[in-house]
Known about the structure:
- Chain A has 63 residues and is mainly alpha-helical.
- Chain A contains 2 helices and no strands.
- Chain A starts with 7 loop residues before the first helix and ends with a helix.
Amino acid sequence: MLNLGPHAIFIWAAYALTFVAIAILTVSILVDDRQQRETLAELERKGIKRRSARAKLASGKKK
Amino acid sequence: MATVTSLANPTRFLSIVDAVVPFLAGLTVLLLGIGLYLSFFVAPPDYQQGETVKIMFIHVPSAWLAMFGYMLIAVASLGTLIWRHPLADVAAKTAAPIGATFTFIALVTGSLWGKPMWGTYWVWDARLTSMLVLLLLYLGLIALWQAIEEPGRAGRAAAILALVGAINIPIIKFSVDWWNTLHQPASVFRMGGSTIDPALLTPLFVMMGAFTLLFVLLHLISMRAEILRRRVHALQQIEVQRAGSGR
């Protein structure tokens, strides 16, 4: 165990709080990113596409 | 300029983010590991502050990113208001929660460092108060984006607030020179070089690099999620229209 002197509690508290805050931020961003990808994939599976995607598909068929 | 213009295409931006994120994530973890090792096992205790100087390795990078995040929002706000860059509003909106988190970390770690060194967790001096104002500005921006449903209107309103609030950044930076404060004056980036010993400066710079990479990484992922959210919203509207017209 590291010996951080008489103020160890303040050092550990600072690092623990930083870790928790960054972990919450990271998890919330990753969960949001995943949710948006899944919802978008679900909509596209239903055949709903953006105008640009439909135009690209149509020009591909013409060729 | 051509690169910036090409990045204005969200689809191209997404493909770049997809390619960059794994590499950036690996680099961030590696640098963070090295930084923590240097902080805990290599950096010596300070001759005055003892081991509490270890708090500096997370406090200073967080404070730097708190201001960097806000400057990023201010520049992106100019992009929203002047150039109407399609990604500017996305960049500003997604930087706010990340900047707010680092501001919160800077305030809390500063407070935990202040108690053993100054004998108090908090004083209403210029540096601490202006950092608290920065956190409130971030929270105000987040609330504004949440309150207005139409992204374009929300983006423009938030951009104006962000630019007005940018005046706080030089106040934070120079507060220790302009007023008498408990907080120490600038010691890392200052005219005449840093006053910190290289044995402490090296881990500090490594941690600043690691935290900055983490900020960029989280910001890129968050921007990707926001672009996808707007696409989802557009597709859901098409779905509703189709259902309404019976197709």
